[in-house]
Amino acid sequence: MNVPIQIVFRNMDRSDALEQQILEKTEKLDRVYDRIINCRVTVEIPHKHHSKGNQHEVTIDVSIPEKKIVVSRNASGSNGSHEVALSAFNEALDVAKRQLEDYARKRKGHVKLHEQPQPSAKITRIFLEEGYGFLETSDGREIYFHSNSVVNDKFDKLQVGTEVTYVEQQGVDGPQASTVKVRD
């Protein structure tokens, strides 16, 4: 990572082994998004008086352009303090990675769009030699389509009455259909 990673231990002794594991795993965050400005990991025992095992809280605070990602996770257990803290850290790191991945996709314009159901229509006229045709929408409008708009080179197989789905666009001479697909 291009920026130093801050690791803070609160209400507990510093562990070189835990610190090394946190550093190694946190450095991989810039593989997900390489414009990280600051990264701070806080490992703490919030309450020192627990009768059942060790309670640890890990907070990962990542600053990136236009956003700050803060993730906290708690873990408790009777096994060693190191393992409990590492478990909380791993959970927090997974969440932080997912949030960075989502942010990176949005920045690149790769946002997942939920597919909208495409409207259906029937072919009303087709001119195979000229390479175009017309379809009638469910609301009774007639829309032009070109052979290049038909998916999977199935234009030659279209007939009057064939049911299709389509995407409507505004063409030079009015509405036209693109991405015309034969309905299964």
Describe the protein.
- The protein is built from 3 helices and 9 strands.
- It is an alpha+beta fold.
- It folds into 2 domains: 104 residues, Ribosome hibernation promotion factor-like (Double Stranded RNA Binding Domain); 63 residues, OB fold (Dihydrolipoamide Acetyltransferase, E2P).
- The longest helix has 28 residues.
- The mean pLDDT is 86.
Corresponding CATH superfamily of the largest domain: Ribosome hibernation promotion factor-like
Kindly name the structural category. Answer: alpha+beta
Q: Structurally, how many domains make up the residues?
A: 2
Distance between the termini: 51 Å
Q: Helix count, per DSSP?
A: 3
Percent range of helical residues? 10-25%
Gyration radius, rounded: 29 Å
**Strand residues, percent:** 35-45%
State the main characteristics.
9 strands; single chain; 2 domains; alpha+beta; 3 helices; 184 residues; five-stranded mixed beta barrel; OB fold (Dihydrolipoamide Acetyltransferase, E2P)
